[in-house]
Specification:
This protein has two domains: 2-254, SET domain (Beta-clip-like), CATH 2.170.270; 287-394, no CATH class. Helix 9 (287-311) packs antiparallel against helix 10. It is an alpha+beta fold. The longest helix is centred in the C-terminal third of the chain and has 25 residues, at 287-311. The protein contains 13 helices and 14 strands. It is globular and about 70 Å long. It binds S-adenosylmethionine (SAM). S-adenosylmethionine binds next to strand 6, helix 7 and strand 11.
């Protein structure tokens, strides 16, 4: 059920979890995110496989799963991890994974590869960031900029455990299986070796329950910004990048590699894993403005905690209409356009509880739009917010905090 999934707003090497045989990114919005790069933990968790065993066992086991005919592989098995490839799927795809995961992938029907017309943006040198993407026309809020399948998908266990030389051989073999134009675009990504490219450009995603790193050469052109104008989600193996506000011609298109609702020092610590010092506008604010931004981030966290605690108590004692309004203001003042869904949801419910029909309708409509962008068009929360916007007075929350109107 794709509708069960939520977006993972914290950047490349993103954290995600799978449902059934889907490829999903399913970290709940409200949940405190996992650190974006938990490589040390992954290294500890991963079992050390025997290295580079191409004898019968893994091949037979792999063949037992019977991936679809247009797939090539298993090849180059290193214990249970083998190379599987398909030149016809998407722009060509290579997997380094177990036979079971390859079987799941090969049976998967991907979303179409699509997005705005290629001339809507162009690639250019961005001072202090290397190459990046620039809007070539006004890109409207909600426009899908890119929707892509990975061209290389590598299970985390061999990525962290294989002998470096063998790993690079295996990765090179995988890249060689891609059609030439895709291979060329893959090789243009930042990084000296294939391993290095994976470290610098991959997105975390799950195939069933196993953590993988997905490579999307087009998507890897987005630079990071702590106040991004593009949000991405990964559902069912597909990476979707979508504009979160109107983006004027000439502005850089950016995503966030981390969970950015954190003060400057925390963001900088997180970004150290990527080996660069962030030069985005938010990280280079003058000291006073930067301190004000940190204070707003702390206010957002405190207000959300307060609302949660109040809502958990019968009668929601101490709830005030201003709380929802302030939550929205703080998000907008901080330019957190990629993270508005939960804030508008809370504000819409609070407005409905206090019988403020106009605000409840407006906030619920904004919440629905934001959640559709952030989580996906089938998001259950987005549907719930649409229902609230369509019929505020029929909603369970309507008038609950209006004295004499309804018992709580
Ligand atoms: C996924 S690549 C993005 C595309 C890259 N600029 C290029 O030329 O291929 C990530 C790398 O871009 C650079 N980068 C991205 N965002 C940045 C930022 N906000 N500040 C400084 N460097 C950044 C860093 O070198 C980072 O390792």
């Amino acid at each position: 059920d794709v509708g069960n999934t939520a977006s993972c707003p914290w950047g490349p090497l993103l954290a995600s979890r799978g449902y059934d045989h889907q490829f999903t990114c399913a970290a709940p919005q409200q949940q405190q995110p996992k650190q974006p790069q938990t490589r040390q933990a992954d290294r500890r968790e991963a079992q050390t496989p025997e290295l580079w065993d191409e004898r019968d066992g893994p091949y037979q086991q792999a063949q037992g799963y019977g991936v679809l005919p247009q797939w090539q592989g298993p090849e180059h098995c290193a214990t249970e991890f083998c190379l599987f490839s398909n030149r016809e799927a998407g722009e060509g795809i290579a997997l380094i994974t177990t036979a079971r995961n390859a079987y799941l992938a090969s049976n998967y029907v991907p979303s179409p590869t699509t997005g705005v017309e290629p001339t809507a943006y162009y690639e250019a040198e961005v001072p202090g960031k290397g190459r990046g993407l620039i809007a070539n026309r006004t890109i409207r809020r909600g426009e899908i900029i890119m929707q892509r399948l990975p061209v290389l998908l590598i299970q985390m266990t061999p990525h962290v455990n294989l002998d470096p030389e063998l790993r690079e051989q295996l990765y090179q073999a995988a890249v060689d299986r891609l059609p030439e134009p895709t291979r060329a675009r893959f090789m243009r990504q930042m990084g000296a070796t294939v391993y290095d490219k994976v470290e610098k450009n991959s997105f975390r995603m799950f195939v069933d329950d196993s953590l993988h790193l997905g490579m999307f050469p087009d998507v890897s052109k987005f630079n990071h910004d702590c106040r991004p104008n593009v949000h991405y989600r990964i559902n069912n193996l597909t990476h979707t990048a979508i504009a979160v506000r109107d983006i004027p011609r000439g502005e850089e298109l950016t995503i966030s590699y981390i969970y950015p609702l954190a003060p400057l020092s925390t963001r900088q610590t997180q970004l150290r894993d990527w080996d660069f010092t962030c030069t985005c506008a938010q990280c280079t604010l003058p000291a006073t403005a930067s301190a004000q931004s940190d204070a707003r981030i702390r206010q957002i966290a405190a207000l959300e905690d307060e609302i949660e605690a109040i809502m958990a108590r019968p009668g929601a004692p101490g709830l005030r209409p201003a709380m929802g309004i302030r939550l929205i203001e703080l998000h907008l003042e901080e330019r957190l356009h990629a993270y508005l869904g939960p804030a508008y949801t809370r504000a819409a419910i609070i407005a409905a509880m206090f019988g403020d029909e106009a605000r409840a309708r407006e906030y619920a409509a904004e919440a629905a739009l934001a959640l559709e962008r952030e989580v996906g068009p089938h998001a259950k929360d987005a549907k719930a917010m649409r229902r609230l916007a369509d019929d505020v007075r029929g909603h369970w929350a309507w008038g609950l905090k209006v004295e004499g109107q309804r018992p709580l």
